[in-house]
Amino acid sequence: METSDTSPAESGEPRDIAAQDWARASADPQYRAAVVDLLGVLAYGELAAFERLAEDAKLAPTLEDKAALAAMASAEFQHFERLRSRLSEIDEDPTAAMEPFAAALDDFHRLTAPSDWLEGLIKAYVGDSIASDFYREVAVRLDSDTRALVLAVLDDTGHSGFAVEKVRAAIEADPRVGGRLALWARRLMGEALSQAQRVVAERDALSTMLVGGVAAGFDLAEVGRMFSRITEAHTKRMAALGLAA
Mind listing the pLDDT tens digit of every residue in the chain (245 residues)? Predict the structure, then answer.
């Protein structure tokens, strides 16, 4: 029986990348480019999160709170190091992989600089959660090795529970705080979705993978459904904080 030397990508046949490991899936140059983009944006996001949490620790009202944020910052940096190491392992330059995403993420942090401790907590909780939802949407379309790494670095560093506890306590102490923080959370949601859409639009390989896999093509309807799911998850998190979305 004769076998074809033509790969699924070359023949136009759909491939289930999620069932493959990295060694096999990365034979497709478009898929490889998409994964390098994904690891690059994740790595820069983790590095930026480390910097932000270290800065937010300065706003902490107590030494205990300062120490808690410092521990979370350390966890974010460990995630960054794992992603940087993985890029090196697959013979990619980590700095070059991160560079295309620096401007978008820096713009987000510049436009959403918190003015106080509570705004910083809301930003970390809302911003990190939206980012995690976004990358989990991508993870289901990844090869098994890359998917395991992505899900590992998306693990909660403890910030979610910490933020919910502190924000709810602040609202109970002064209900007027709730209105201000709800408005702040809405602004963060808008900015975060805008930056996520910017990342998707500017990186062809990543956007194609995001909406159904390299072989499946670009589907604007699926992009819309994805962002609807992210918005629904955000509404639930605001309820957990005691805020209106």
Answer: 444 444 444 434 345 888 899 999 999 998 999 999 999 999 999 999 899 888 888 889 999 999 988 988 898 999 999 999 999 999 999 999 999 999 989 988 888 989 899 999 998 888 888 888 888 888 888 999 999 999 999 887 777 888 889 999 999 999 999 999 999 999 998 888 888 777 777 788 777 776 655 444 446 677 778 888 888 998 888 888 888 76
Task: Quote the tokens at residue 39.
Answer: 């690891």
Q: What is the residue type of 159?
A: H
Backbone angles phi, psi at 240, to 5 degrees: -65, -30
CB neighbourhood size of 92 (10 A)? 16
Q: 141 near 33, Cβ under 8 Å?
A: no
What is the pTM for the complete model shown?
0.84
The residue among 59, 184, 191, 56 whose CA lies nearest residue 122 is: 184
Q: How far is CA 237 from CA 177, 182, 193, in A?
A: 17, 12, 16
Q: Do residues 72 and 121 touch, judged by C-beta distance below 8 A?
A: no
